[in-house]
Design goal:
Number of domains: 1
Largest sheet: 9 strands, mixed
Number of helices: 8
Distance between the termini: 32 Å
Oligomer: single chain
Number of strands: 11
Structural class: alpha/beta
Shape: globular
Order of helices and strands: EHEHHEEHEHEEEEHHEHE
Bound molecules: uridine-5'-diphosphate
Length: 246
């Protein structure tokens, strides 16, 4: 359906990159890396914005399974090997999300930055944007395909590449604070902050490569909590949730 013909709620943002860290899939009680119930509830949240015609690119992390630097140190493998293990972890998460979204009736494609033709399409920008235009959710797995990067950087990169209106980073915290809210009762949340102020105040929003990519490409970042139901929906409707960096 042509967007102009659509009735019902009108989203403020039409094409987004949603960055989910691997940890959002973890079972908080038993520590299992992928929890079926949590996975389903996240996919239902994604479906809510898919149903109103928002073009969704999903970048999934792998930290619930393996993180390059810390994982490599513990297991004695090289950093680069650890990073490839981390990138493979994002593919595992990507497959779980693919499967779950499909079961909910969402049309979805999985693209991997590391070619794996038995289970995912290779990442091809034009093909990805075509999928989005046709109303398919695209999951970008495999990170950037290069060691020494993160999936936050992948999200910044893909957001710029597909010309997203915004990079939405769903986390466990409901926005950006002037200091760590877990340690300081008087921490103050920002509703909005300029890139340059976030840099000056050394607020850790994402790693510096990811952050500078967004700043250089004028890609707005919305940091919000995944814990409140309906938050992705509210974010695309332009409700004042989380912290906007622009
Ligand atoms: N990784 C990488 N290159 C990339 C993206 C990810 O080497 O372009 C590796 C890196 O080791 C990282 C791991 O994959 O620790 C998992 O990604 P990340 O830590 O960003 O996941 P998240 O914290 O978002 O779950």
């Amino acid at each position: 359906m042509d967007e102009s013909e659509q009735t019902g709620p009108k989203p403020k943002y039409h094409r987004i990159i949603l960055k989910l860290s691997g940890e959002v899939l973890r079972n908080a009680e038993d520590g299992e890396p992928i929890d079926a119930k949590t996975l389903k509830s996240i996919c239902e949240e994604v479906k809510k914005v898919y149903d109103i015609g928002v073009q969704v690119g999903l970048v999934i992390g792998g930290g619930n399974i393996f993180r390059g630097l810390s994982g490599a140190e513990m297991r004695g493998v090289d950093r680069t090997t650890g990073d490839y293990m981390g990138m493979l972890a994002t593919v595992i998460n990507g497959l779980a999300i693919l499967d779950c979204l499909e079961k909910l009736g969402v049309t979805v494609r999985l693209q991997s930055a590391i070619p794996m033709d038995k289970l995912a399409e290779p990442f091809i920008l034009r093909r990805a944007t075509r999928h989005l235009e046709r109303g398919r959710v695209v999951i970008f797995a495999g990170g950037t395909g290069n060691p020494y990067f993160s999936t936050d950087t992948t999200a910044a990169l893909r957001a710029s590449e597909i010309g997203a209106d915004m990079l939405m980073k769903a986390t466990k915290v409901d926005g950006i604070y002037d200091k760590d809210p877990a340690k300081h009762d008087d921490a103050v949340k920002y509703d909005k902050i300029a890139y340059i102020d976030a840099l000056r105040d050394r607020l850790k929003i994402m790693d510096s490569t990811a952050f500078s990519l967004c700043m250089e490409n004028k890609m707005p970042i919305l940091v919000f909590s995944m814990r409140e139901p309906g938050s992705i929906y509210r974010a695309v409707m332009g409700d004042a949730i989380g912290t906007l960096v622009e």
